Amino acid sequence: MAEKSNLSLVMTADRSRFSSQAEKLVLGEKVVALTFGGESGAQFDAVADVAEKYKVPYVAIGGMSNMASRKYVVETAGWEALLSNSANM
Question: Among candidates 45, 44, 10, which has minimal Cα distance to 25?
Fold first, then answer.
């Protein structure tokens, strides 16, 4: 029997709300991973900090600080690079 999967989408603008929404997903919704995380470095950092705190994998599509010290965060290319690469296929 296949496991039931839930997908949660949260949209918010400021860093403190990004942190609290990420914590809500991890603690309340019991997600096993986080992805995307925002539009600015501060928003990506906020989600990354929560991921590190609760040891939850986070795949970020964007730049953030302190990548060398983060154990649970994977940073991919930004949207511009992804769109550029797909246009060349």
Answer: 10
Rounded CA separation 51/56 (Å): 5
pLDDT digits (tens, 9 = 90+) for 27-53: 999 999 998 777 778 888 899 999 999
Q: Per-domain residue ranges for the chain?
A: 32-87
Helix, strand or coil, per DSSP, at residue 59: strand
Among 58, 49, 52, 53, smallest CA distance to 76 is for: 58
Q: How many CA atoms lie within 13 A of 1 on its CB side?
A: 2
Say what the pTM is.
0.70
Helices of type H across the chain? 15-23, 41-54, 79-87
